[in-house]
Amino acid sequence: DISEEMFLSTQSILREVQKLKRYLKKEYDVDAITVKADEVRFSLHENLLRKLLMRIMKDEVLKTDNTKIPCLKELLYEAYDQMEFTYITKMIEEYFQKKQVMLTDDCLIMVSSAIYISYVRNLTNHLIEESEPYEKDEAVAQLLDELRKADVVIMEHDEALLHNFLHIFKLNAYNEDEDE
Questions:
Q1: What CA–CA distance (Å, rounded) separates 31 from 75?
Q2: Residue environment code for 13-28, b if the CB has 16+ CB neighbours within 10 A, otherwise e
Q3: Strand pairing partners for 123?
Q4: Any residues with CB less than 8 A from the CB of 135 and at least 6 apart, and which?
Q5: Which of the 8 DSSP states describes residue 44?
Q6: First and final CA of the chain: distance in angstroms?
Q7: pTM, rounded to two decimals
Q8: ∠ CA(89), CA(96), CA(119), 5° rounding?
Q9: Rounded to an integer, what distance in angstroms lies between the CA atom of residue 11 and that of residue 3?
Q10: Closest C-alpha to 116, from 61, 37, 42, 177
Q11: Which of 91, 115, 127, 122 has the alpha carbon at shortest distance from 165?
Q12: Phi, psi of 9 (to 5 degrees)
């Protein structure tokens, strides 16, 4: 029982869960927590869960000093691996340097975090079952292909979510003639 693990009463935990439920509803319009007696359930389709994780992470980056990766460890809990995240971030940074795309530190953290969220969820067998519609962004597609070549697990159904999230960073700011 989680209350014993955390040395808190069941009532204290339920109060905190209710606060979290109100926060998610107010800030993200997400109503995915149900509480019945001593049972708490979080239920959200994988695609919506990843969108939520990416939005929370983006909001945290924008409102904090990003010398650390804000909240990513808490969002992914035991699946988070600092060495993996650093490796993926370094690959992304080198890719952008090669393409002469300049990103702020905040943008780099948001891009690498979004990709890392998909990577971790895939590795833990939490897969998106079907894609949502999206307009393909060639710069995003090239980045994802490059990461796949380096064995970063990005599934076909991840593409829509990542394209829709990453297109806001204008990754296509390089000259495509220099591509090959």
A1: 17
A2: bbeebeeebeebeeee
A3: none
A4: 163, 167
A5: -
A6: 56
A7: 0.83
A8: 35
A9: 9
A10: 61
A11: 115
A12: -75, 155
